[in-house]
């Protein structure tokens, strides 16, 4: 086994870190082979962090693999009592946190790497970081580090997309799957997804202005300032109106509407309140810069890629048909989790990705991520939280998918937004209860 191991303790937790070499291109390898070091196959690093209650470190506990949202998001870093779901899971499980390939300590993709590649080579490199490759990485970890023991998985948001790919690709490695706000559409195109999410974004804007009607005037004043002047962010990028509108990505989270309100509450400085404040510009830069995760923007539309279809900047195409997001609309409407081609010109951290992202938008030879026949015969128990007002993963698609994945039980709730599992342990507890009522996780012999 080619794994580097480090172990230490942190306030009631024992943490073990692993680094493994995995193939950059799983398509060129035998995924069932444990040793991939031979030959000329390029490798990248897969980083995993195992967390266990220090008082149960020697117990034979079930394995819970957390699949982070994104795409392009690293795993949460454990802190005492945080995130809430993990504090609950550690009572019964050994928790495994992987940095998905291209993120965190798993050969993070940055501008230095991508800028050295042509448009076509950059596109082809990014295509090796899709959900099917993440699943292959997880299977390699399961077989090498954990001796083939079954994983339970907790997939948040994009982690649910990965869960569906896992159930399609290697269900024999799974004992049970928890999904929170992540039952993706199985056959819908990027455009079909955005047709639903744009409407949900409009609803969230309406909720925002209903809660804080006085913010409409402040938003209009900000829009006028950005339209009439050249405003620079602390990193030197120009803050355009369309970039400012993208702070609406916050609106679908539990505290999101309030966060936007407090952001614009301090928008102006000076005795006459006509100058955009330093604190406002700093916060807007942090929300919209993608310095921490450029991979999110670079591959975002490709997660909806279907065979023989280009994504072709679907979010931009649809935005042009929706007058609600025009600069002249009153009140000013914020956009959501959409990535636009102009971002790769305006945002400095994304400029090196521009050629590869444009080439990816024109790509259409996607391999299918989901096996509809296998999902229809699924034996692995799946329990999923579907958030009624989810701005990012539309409930309509989630419920349609749930009907097509056998052995799936859904909990529909309007008590939480998309980040419910990060806000309260109740979401994980509720799903755990549903799973146990369903008979609990599978045993290895039940896969036979």
From TrEMBL:
GO terms for molecular function: peptidase activity. One of its GO terms (biological process) is proteolysis. Keywords: Hydrolase. Residues 62-203 form the AB hydrolase-1 domain. It comes from the Bacteria. PANTHER family: 2-SUCCINYL-6-HYDROXY-2,4-CYCLOHEXADIENE-1-CARBOXYLATE SYNTHASE, PROLYL AMINOPEPTIDASE. Belongs to the peptidase S33 family. This is Proline iminopeptidase.
């Amino acid at each position: 086994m080619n794994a580097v191991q480090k172990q230490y303790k942190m306030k009631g937790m024992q943490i073990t870190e692993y680094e493994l070499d995995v193939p950059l291109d799983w398509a060129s390898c035998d995924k069932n082979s444990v040793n991939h070091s031979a030959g000329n196959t390029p490798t990248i690093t897969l980083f995993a962090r195992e967390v266990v209650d220090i008082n149960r470190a020697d117990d034979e506990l079930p394995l819970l693999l957390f699949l982070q949202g994104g795409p392009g998001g690293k795993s949460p870093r454990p802190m005492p009592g945080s995130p809430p779901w993990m504090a609950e899971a550690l009572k019964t499980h050994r928790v495994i946190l992987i940095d998905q390939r291209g993120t965190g300590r798993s050969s993070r993709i940055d501008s230095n790497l991508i800028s050295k590649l042509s448009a076509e080579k950059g596109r082809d490199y990014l295509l090796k970081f899709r959900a099917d490759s993440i699943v292959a990485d997880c299977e390699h970890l399961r077989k090498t580090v954990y001796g083939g023991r079954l994983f339970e998985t907790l997939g948040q948001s994009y982690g649910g997309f990965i869960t569906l790919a896992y159930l399609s690709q290697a269900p024999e490695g799974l004992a049970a799957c928890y999904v929170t706000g992540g039952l993706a559409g199985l056959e819908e195109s990027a455009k079909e997804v955005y047709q639903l999410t744009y409407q949900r974004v409009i609803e969230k804007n309406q909720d925002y202005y209903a809660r804080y009607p006085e913010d409409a005037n402040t938003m209009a004043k900000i829009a006028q300032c950005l339209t009439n002047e050249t405003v620079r962010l602390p990193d030197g990028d120009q803050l355009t109106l369309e970039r400012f509108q993208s702070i609406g990505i916050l609106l679908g989270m539990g505290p999101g509407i309030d966060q936007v309100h407090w952001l614009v509450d301090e928008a102006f400085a000076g005795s006459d309140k006509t100058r955009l404040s330093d604190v406002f510009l700093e916060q807007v830069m942090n929300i919209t810069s993608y310095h921490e995760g450029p991979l999110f923007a670079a591959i975002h539309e490709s997660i909806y890629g279907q065979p023989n279809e280009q994504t072709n900047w679907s979010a931009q195409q649809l935005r042009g048909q929706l007058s609600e997001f025009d600069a002249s609309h009153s009140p000013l409407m914020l956009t959501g989790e959409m990535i636009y081609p102009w971002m790769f010109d305006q945002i400095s951290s994304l400029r090196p990705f521009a050629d590869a992202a444009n080439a990816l938008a024109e790509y259409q030879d996607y391999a299918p991520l989901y096996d509809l026949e296998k999902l229809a015969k699924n034996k692995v128990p799946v329990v999923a939280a579907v958030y009624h007002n989810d701005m990012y993963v539309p409930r309509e698609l989630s419920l349609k998918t749930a009907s097509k994945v056998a052995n799936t039980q859904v909990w529909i709730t309007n008590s939480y937004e998309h980040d419910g599992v990060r806000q309260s342990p109740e979401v994980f507890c509720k799903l755990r209860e549903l799973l146990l009522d369903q008979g609990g996780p599978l045993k290895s012999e039940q896969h036979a």
